[in-house]
Design goal:
Helices cover about 65% and strands about 0% of the residues. With about 170 residues, the protein is mainly α. Helix 1 runs antiparallel to helix 2 and helix 2 crosses helix 3.
Length: about 170
């Protein structure tokens, strides 16, 4: 997992870069990966902007996606410059370029509303459902036994009533 560095650390890295220090030395002094230092220093050299805040994922409008793709495809702008100009990540731009090459601008549109993918239920939920199923089976057995008992009770009551009032066949016990 990558560490999120503070603005002060990035500001120190920029100051060292302005003094002419190499990215490897900056990375060692500040404690930031050399790859990140190289990338941000290169962006600063090309654009004059140095990003000190971490970039958080946020939804990007279709117009920005289209403009960034056009800048690379039609204007032959480098990916690095396009990312700096539109304040987007390299991975996002590469994804958009792949989608554009596969299906044009329509592929850049969001196919579904935002939100996360549905997730599989957790195992303990499955166990809880299995426990619920077992409980329902036991309840079903209990209710079947209760119905059978009540049917017998009703039959005995009818038989007793019939004997009392002389209705129906006589019991064989007499």
């Amino acid at each position: 997992m990558t560490k999120i560095h503070t603005e002060e650390e990035w500001q120190k890295a920029l100051d060292l870069h302005k003094e002419g220090m190499m990215p490897r030395a900056i990375a060692r002094i500040v404690g930031i990966s050399e790859r990140e230092v190289k990338h941000r220093c290169r962006m600063y050299d090309l654009t004059g902007k140095f990003q000190t805040k971490p970039r958080m994922g946020h939804p990007v409008d279709f117009k920005i996606k289209r403009a960034a793709v056009d800048a690379v495809v039609k204007k032959s702008l480098s990916c690095v410059l396009a990312c700096a100009e539109y304040d987007i990540s390299r991975s996002s731009l590469k994804d958009w370029l792949d989608k554009f090459r596969q299906g044009g601008y329509e592929n850049l549109r969001d196919k579904k509303p935002g939100g996360s993918f549905p997730r599989m239920p957790k195992k303990k939920n499955i166990r809880a459902e299995a426990g619920e199923l077992e409980r329902l089976r036991e309840e079903n057995e209990y209710l079947k036994a209760e119905v059978a008992y009540l049917k017998k009770l009703k039959a005995l009551d009818q038989e007793e009533s019939a004997e009392t009032f002389g209705i129906g066949p006589k019991s064989s016990m007499n």
